[in-house]
Design brief:
Blueprint (H helix, E strand, L loop, with lengths): L12 H10 L19 E7 L6 E8 L19
Antiparallel strand pairs: 1-2
Family: Belongs to the eukaryotic ribosomal protein eL42 family.
Protein name: 1455_t:CDS:1
InterPro entries: Ribosomal_eL44 (IPR000552), Ribosomal_LSU_eL42 (IPR053708), Ribosomal_zn-bd (IPR011332)
Length: 81
C-alpha cells in the first residue's frame, strides 16, 4: 500500500511548547515557512510479507499522479468509443 503520514499528536513535546508560546496576545511567535521548492513528494510503498507480516518501505521517484494496481496503458492502441 502507499505510505501516508499519520495524524499529528496534540501531545508531542514540540506541539505542547508551540501551543503554550502561541497562547495569549503577541501574534505569531515562530517563523511560518513560505518558500516551498518542491511540488511533488516521493512515492513510498509500504510492503508487507504475507506469511510473517514483516513490513518495509521502498521509495520510488517523484510523480504528480500515482495509481496503485490500475490498468496498464498500451502503446499505440486504437481509441475505443
Amino acid at each position: 500500500s502507499q505510505y501516508k503520514k499519520g495524524k499529528d499528536s496534540l501531545y508531542a513535546q514540540g506541539k505542547r511548547r508551540y501551543d503554550r508560546k502561541q497562547s495569549g496576545y503577541g501574534g505569531q511567535t515562530k517563523p511560518v515557512f513560505h518558500k516551498k521548492a518542491k511540488t511533488t513528494k516521493k512515492i513510498v510503498l509500504r510492503l508487507e510479507c504475507q506469511s510473517c507480516k514483516y513490513k518495509h518501505q521502498i521509495a520510488l521517484k517523484r510523480c504528480k499522479h500515482f495509481e496503485l494496481g490500475g490498468d496498464k496503458k498500451t502503446k499505440g492502441a486504437a481509441l475505443v468509443f
